[in-house]
Each structure stands twice: as structure tokens, then as C-alpha cells.
């Protein structure tokens, strides 16, 4: 067996992606209605995924903008920058337009969600609404913090939100 350093990075990334996809599919097939899996997804996998995506966004902007600035500064002649800048802008607009048209065309062709039952659709819409953070504001009348989430409204606690209110 080769040491880990001898395996190229792109191969390790491909294997990791395939193992992750296989594990996700296996857990979906074997543990679909398991409350332990739902708890793991809600409190471990989803927060870790959100942190990962946000870190990627934090990484992209600081790398792309200085690379563009250095590229423009390295060209020297401003007349050349104008032509290349216009070509780059036109290329970006054309490629973005193609991506949007491709996405809209595939969505209209494949029509995702058409085969979904009304009960599943209602459950998904309800779950999406509770994923948003509630607005907390100081009430003028009571001068206490109020919460607008369903849990606090269900307990009729308009004055104080539940101690475990994380929505």
C-alpha cells in the first residue's frame, strides 16, 4: 500500500467525495426515519456544512480581488487594460447569461417537484419557515424581549421566550 503522500491530491479528493456520497446514500437508505440520524444531521452535519461554505466564501473574495488587481497592474499600458477589461467584462456577461439560461431551461424541462405529494410539499414549506431566525424586539408596552417563533407563541409566552428558543 502506498503512503498517503504518494497518492495525488486530486485522487484523494475524488475518493473522499465518493466515500461521503456513499455514506450519505447508505444512511438515507438504512436509517431514513431514525431520530438519531435526524439529530446528527440537525446538530452536527448542518452546522459544520454551513461553517465550511462560509469559510469558502471568505476565502474566495480575498483571493480573487487581489489577483485581478495584480493582473491589471502587471499589464502596464492603460490602453491595453481597456481592451482586455472590456473583453473580460463581455466574457463574464456572456458566460453568466448562458448559465442562467441553461438553469432556467433545465428547470422548465425537468420540472423538479412536480411528482411531490401535497403533504410533503406542505411539510417542506413549513420546515423552511421555521428555519428563519425570529425577530426579537423590545415591546413598547411591556419593555420586555418578545419572540415571534411558533414555539413561543404556542406556549403563549409573549413576554419571555422559552429558555431553549434557538429559532
Provide the fold topology.
Blueprint: H1 9-30, H2 35-75, H3 78-110, H4 118-131, E1 136-138, E2 145-147, H5 150-154
Antiparallel strand pairs: 1-2
Describe this structure in words.
The chain is mainly α and 167 residues long. The protein has 5 helices and 2 strands. Strands 1-2 form a two-stranded antiparallel sheet. A hairpin with a 6-residue loop joins strand 1 (136-138) and strand 2 (145-147). The longest helix is centred in the first third of the chain and has 41 residues, at 35-75. The relative contact order is 0.03. Mean pLDDT is 77; it is low at 137-145 and 160-164.
> What structural class do the secondary elements suggest?
mainly alpha
Helicity, in percent?
A: 55-70%
**What is the radius of gyration computed over CA atoms, rounded to a whole number of angstroms?**
25 Å
Largest sheet: 2 strands, antiparallel
Strand content: under 5%
- In whole angstroms, how far apart are the ends? 49 Å
Order of helices and strands: HHHHEEH
Global morphology: extended
Characteristic terms for this protein:
167 residues; mainly alpha; two-stranded antiparallel sheet; 5 helices; 2 strands; 4% strand; extended
Summary, kept brief:
The chain is mainly α.
Amino acid at each position: 500500500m502506498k503512503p498517503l503522500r504518494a497518492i495525488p491530491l486530486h485522487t484523494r479528493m475524488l475518493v473522499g467525495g465518493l466515500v461521503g456520497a456513499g455514506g450519505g446514500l447508505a444512511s438515507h437508505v438504512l436509517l431514513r426515519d431514525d431520530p438519531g440520524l435526524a439529530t446528527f444531521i440537525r446538530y452536527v452535519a448542518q452546522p459544520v456544512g454551513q461553517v465550511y461554505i462560509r469559510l469558502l466564501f471568505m476565502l474566495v473574495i480575498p483571493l480573487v480581488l487581489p489577483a485581478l488587481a495584480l493582473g491589471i497592474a502587471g499589464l502596464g499600458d492603460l490602453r491595453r487594460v481597456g481592451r482586455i477589461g472590456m473583453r473580460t467584462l463581455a466574457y463574464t456577461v456572456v458566460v453568466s447569461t448562458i448559465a442562467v439560461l441553461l438553469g432556467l431551461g433545465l428547470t422548465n424541462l425537468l420540472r423538479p417537484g412536480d411528482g411531490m405529494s401535497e403533504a410533503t410539499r406542505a411539510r417542506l414549506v413549513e420546515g423552511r419557515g421555521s428555519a428563519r431566525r425570529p425577530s426579537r424586539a423590545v415591546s413598547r408596552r411591556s419593555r420586555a424581549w418578545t419572540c415571534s417563533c411558533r414555539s413561543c407563541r404556542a406556549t403563549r409566552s409573549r413576554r419571555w421566550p422559552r429558555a431553549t428558543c434557538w429559532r
